[in-house]
Design brief:
This is DUF397 domain-containing protein. It comes from Micromonospora arida. Residues 1-20 are annotated as: Disordered. InterPro entries: DUF397. With 62 residues, the chain is an alpha+beta fold. It is built from one helix and four strands; from the N terminus they run ββββα. Strands 1-2-3-4 form a four-stranded antiparallel β-sheet. It is flat, with a radius of gyration of 12 Å.
């Protein structure tokens, strides 16, 4: 999936200490991008919005 034009934001659960950080881009139609903030030029995952929503629901349940 093409993530050109993605506006990345850091997860609110990521600290400022340079640890494990996740960035999400949800400004593109039909795709949610996820990447490691320590490697912005590296690979990114792309999810359709329904799959991303289901992931969030399950993650919140633990």
């Amino acid at each position: 999936m093409d993530l050109t034009g993605a506006r990345w934001r850091k997860s609110s659960k990521s600290g400022n200490n340079g640890g494990n950080c996740v960035e999400v881009a949800d400004n593109l139609a039909g795709v949610i991008g996820v990447r490691d903030s320590k490697d912005p030029a590296g690979p990114a995952l792309a999810f359709d919005p329904a799959a991303w929503t289901q992931f969030l629901v399950l993650a919140k349940r633990g």
